[in-house]
Amino acid sequence: MTTQRPTTRPAKPRVRRGTDPTKPIVVSYFPWIEVQLTADEARRLALDIADLLGGGR
User: Fold this and answer.
1) Residue 3 forms part of a structural domain
2) What range defines the domain where residue 22 resides?
3) Cα–Cα distance for residue pair 57/53, rounded to 1 Å
4) Each residue of 17-45: pLDDT tens digit?
5) What is the number of structural domains in the chain?
6) Is there a domain that residue 5 lies in?
7) Cα–Cα distance, 46 to 54 (Å, whole number)
8) Cα separation values, 4 from 10, 27, 28, 31, Å
9) Residue 28: inside a domain, yes or no?
10) Residue 14 gets which letter from DSSP?
């Protein structure tokens, strides 16, 4: 059994980033999930994803 989203509209992330680099970046797929990352965490996550997809650093 798979869980389906309640709408057929494609999920597009909303990214909120303020001018203060010390505040977290918020990525949300409302209303399903919301993630808050610092800039350093976002950078490390992007590098990990690139490694998983076979990209280099």
Assistant:
1) no
2) 14-52
3) 12
4) 778 777 888 888 777 788 888 888 888 88
5) 1
6) no
7) 12
8) 12, 20, 17, 13
9) yes
10) E
